[in-house]
Amino acid sequence: MHVLPHEPRTLTVAIMPIRISRGTRLISAVALLAFTILLAWMLSTRMGMIPPLGHLTNPWQGFWQNMERDGIPDLVLDADQLRSTVTVRYDERGVPHIFADNDYDLYFAQGLVTARDRLWQVDFQTRAAAGRLSEIVGPAAIDYDRAQRRLGMMYGAEINAASMGSDPRTSTMVQAYTDGFNAWLEQLRPKDYPVEFKIFDSEPEPFSPLTAALLLMNMSQTLSAGTRAHAQTNARALLDEDVYRLLYPDELPWTDPIIPPDQNWDFDPIPPETPNPGFVPGIVRDLPLPEPDPGIGSNSWAVDGSKTASGYPVLSSDPHLSVNLPSIWYEIQLHSTGTNLNTYGVSLPGAPGVVIGFNEHVAWGVTNTGSNTLDIFEIEFRDDRRSEYLHDGQWKPVRQRIEYIPVRGGEAVTDTVLYTHHGPVTQTSGDNVAPNRFPEGHAIRWVAHLPDNDILLAIYKFNRARNQDEFESALRHFTNLPQNITYADRDGNISMGHMGLFPVRFFGQGSYISDGRDPAWDWNQFVPFEHLPRTFNPERGFVSSANQAPATRSYPYYLGRSYYGFSRGARINQILAESQNITGAFFEEMLMDSHSLHAEKILPFLLSLVDTDSAPDADSAPNAAAAPEPPSGTATTATASLGSEPAGSTPNQPALNSNEQSDHKQVVITIINMLEEWNYTFDADSPVALFYANWEQRLMRELWDPLMDSTDRYIVRPAVTTTIRLLLDGEHHVIPADVPETVNRTFRKALEEHVRRHGPDPADWHYGRDRTARVGHLAMLPGFGRDDFIASGRPEAINATGSTFGPSWRMVVELGPELRARGHYPGGQTGNPGHPGYDRFIDDWAAGNFYDLLFWNSVSDAPEQTASTMILQNRNR
C-alpha cells in the first residue's frame, strides 16, 4: 500500500471585529487608572501597624538593602570635627578597637561605630524612655507613654543632661560622642536605614546629650524603679504582727551578706530623723504595681593572689538583665595615646565609655544593690483641685508639668503631671495609666531624679584608673545608679563596695508607704561615702555579690529589705571558700554552674511527704499505659505511665480500679527514684530538672493561694527562701494551705502535666530543650529573635538563666604582668537582622564557650588579627 504524501492544510479563522464604543473605552481606561492609583496608594500608604508595602519591598530602598554578607568592609570617612586621624580595627567577631590621639577623637569614633551597628536600637530605646513610642506605633502606646512621663523619665533626663555639662571631661565625652553618632547618621540615605525603621515607617532622629541622659534613665528604670512598699504596707496591715514577721522577715534566712559578718564599722553614724507617731497609710487595693524584677540581678566576685594559680587576682562579672536582640551591650576597646587610656569591655549603646571591663591595671564588675532607691509618699491635697498639698504643717503649691504626646494616626494627647517636692504624682483620681501604676494620690521620690548625677564621670575615671586610690576617686561619683562594685588590680588588691546615694533612714523607712506630710520622712541627708558598706582585701581572700543583703544588722544604717535570697550568694561563697589555685578557666566553669541550693534544701523534705499510695484526683487521674523508665543509673521499677488528656481538658473520670491505682503508684515511685538520684543541677540534658522546676513553681504558688485570695488588697507571696525555711522549721501553722495535701496534689498535677507535654519516656525529657528560653527582639518583632538554642541554668543558680532574662555579659579577667580576659554575651555586635553576625554569639553563650577578648596595646598589635579597618580623617588638617 502506498501512502501518498499530502499537502499541509491551512486553517483560516475569520475574526469578526468587535466594536467598542468610546464610552466603554473611557470607562475601561478610568477603571484601569483607578486600579493603578489604588494599588500605588496601597503600596505607599501605611495601614495601621502595616508599613507602606511598596517602600518596604522596594528592591532599591526597602528591606533588600539590609541584606549583608558576613564581615565588615574597609572604609575611609572624612569628618571635619576630627583633630587627627583615628584608626578603627574590627576583629573577627566585629568588635571595634579604636585608636585615637585624644579624647575628643576617641569618643567621636565611639559614637560613630555605635551608630553604624546600633542606630535603630538607640533611637527606639530613647523614644521608649522618653514616652514617645506613640509617635511611631500609634494609639496603642499612649498609656505606656503617659506612664513614662508620669514616672518622670524625661524630667530626670533633663536634670542628668545638665549634670553632664557641669564637668569639662564629661562634657567633652558627650559632645564628641554626639558629633560622631550624628556624623554617621548624616551620611546615610533612607535605603541605608536599619530595617526596623522601614518596618515602622519611621526615621532616625539626631543624637543629643539628652539622648545619652535618656538612655541612662532607661537603665535606671530597669535597675532601680521597682518597689514593694505598697505590698508590704498592705501585708503588715492585714496580718498579725508575729505572722507578718514570719512571712516577710527583715532578713532572709541563710543569707551570707556581701560584706563579711565580722566587719567593724569604725565611724559615728548620722542619726535619722524621728517621725511623728501614729501614721497609718491607706490601703492599696487590687492594683498591679511595679516591683523589682526577679530577673534583674547579677553575680560578681574576685579572689586575691592567695587563692589563684598565678598569684595575681582574678575577677568575674555577669550582670543579669533582659536578654534581647540587639543586645543591651556593645563590646569595644578604647585607646587614646594622648591621655594614656586603654580600656576594654562593654558599653551601653548611646553612652560613651566602658561600663564593665578592665584596663592594663584594674578590672571591675557590677551587681544591682536591691536597696531602697524609690519611695512612695502618701499625699494629702487641700481639695479636689490638687493645687496645694500638706507638708510640715503648711499648704505648699503643686507644680504642674504639661506633657505633650504626639500620636501617629490620632490626636495628640496632653497630660498634666503634678509635682510635689518629693517628686511626680503618678496616678490621680480617675486615671488608668498602665503599666507603671502607683497608688492614686501618691508621689514618688526616686534617686534617678536627683541632681548632680556624675555616673559618666565615674565611668570616665574607671576607664583610666591605675590603682586602688584612683578607683576610689571614681567611686565617689557613682551616685544615682546604685550598684555593688567589684574591684581587682595587678598590685594584688581586691575590694567590694555597696555604692550610690542612700538616704539616712529610720528603720523601715522606704520599705512601706511614707507619710508625705511629715518632713522626717523626707530624704534630708545621705549616707556619707566613707560610711557605705565596703570591704578591702578581706582575710578570706575573696569578695562577692549576688544581690543579697549588703551587711548584717550590725551595719548602723537602714538601707532596705528587698534583697535576693541566699542561693546564688551562698553557692558562690561556698565554691570560693573551698577552692585554691584558681584560674580564669575555673571561673568560666563556675559562671556556668547550674546547681540549685533551693532544691538541695527543700527537695528531700518534699519527697518525705509524697504519698506513693495516694490515688490521683479525679481531674488528674492517669490512664494505664507503659511507665516511664528512669535514665541509666537510677532505680527502676516496671510500671505504667500517666495517660494524656488533651491540654486544657477537664476529664470527669470514674474512680480508678485496683490495677490502675497500682500503676499510678509505680509511676510515682519511678519519679521519686529519679528525684532522689538527682544532683540538684539544672543542666540542659537533665531529664528530671524540668519536672522539678514545674512542681516547685506550682507548689510555691498554691501554698499561698488562700492568702492571696483572702483579700482584695495588693500583696505579694512570701519569698521562696522564706517558704523553704517555714517548711523546714515546721512553721506550717502560718502557711494557709494544708502542707502535706498541697505537696501531694501539686506533685500529681505536675507529673500529669509533664507527661502530657513531654511524653512518658524519660529519654525524651530534656530540660534545656523543653523549657521556655528565648532571646527576643527588642520591639518583639516576630522572627527577629531566637528560641532555638539549648541552655542550662535556673534563676536561683549562678548560671541564672530564665525565660527572657539571664547573664547579659559574662567576663573573666586574669590580672598580672600579662593580662588575659575572656567573655561573651547573647547576641552579636551588629543590630542588623540581615547580617550573619546579628545573633552569632548566642549558641556559644548558651553552651558556655568563651571568647578571647583581644586587648591590643597599639595599632601595630592588630594587623594580622584584623578583619577590617575604618579610617576616620580630617582632610582639612
Which secondary structure elements does this structure contain, and how are they paired or packed?
Elements: H1 22-44, H2 53-57, E1 75-78, E2 86-90, E3 96-100, H3 103-130, H4 134-137, H5 142-150, H6 153-164, H7 168-186, H8 195-199, H9 209-224, H10 229-238, H11 241-247, E4 297-303, E5 314-322, E6 324-325, E7 330-336, E8 341-347, E9 356-359, E10 362-368, E11 374-378, E12 388-391, E13 394-397, E14 399-405, E15 413-419, E16 424-425, E17 442-446, H12 455-464, H13 468-475, E18 483-489, E19 494-499, E20 514-515, E21 534-536, E22 542-545, H14 567-578, H15 584-591, H16 597-609, H17 658-677, H18 689-702, H19 705-709, H20 720-728, H21 739-758, H22 767-770, E23 776-777, E24 805-807, E25 810-814, E26 820-824, H23 842-847, E27 851-852, E28 868-873
Helix pairs in contact: 3-7, 3-9, 6-9, 12-13, 16-20, 18-21
Structure description:
The longest helix has 28 residues, at 103-130. The protein has 877 residues and is α+β, with helices and mostly antiparallel strands. It is 30% helix and 16% strand. The chain folds into 3 domains: 33-65, no CATH class; 67-277 and 293-593 and 792-877, Aminohydrolase, N-terminal nucleophile (Ntn) domain (Glutamine Phosphoribosylpyrophosphate, subunit 1, domain 1, 4-Layer Sandwich), CATH 3.60.20.10; 597-765, no CATH class. It has an 11-stranded mixed β-sheet with strand order 1-28-2-3-7-8-9-10-18-19-21, with helices on one face. Strands 4, 5, 22, 24, 25, 26 and 27 form a 7-stranded antiparallel β-sheet that branches. Strands 17-11-20 form a 3-stranded mixed β-sheet, with no helix packed on it.
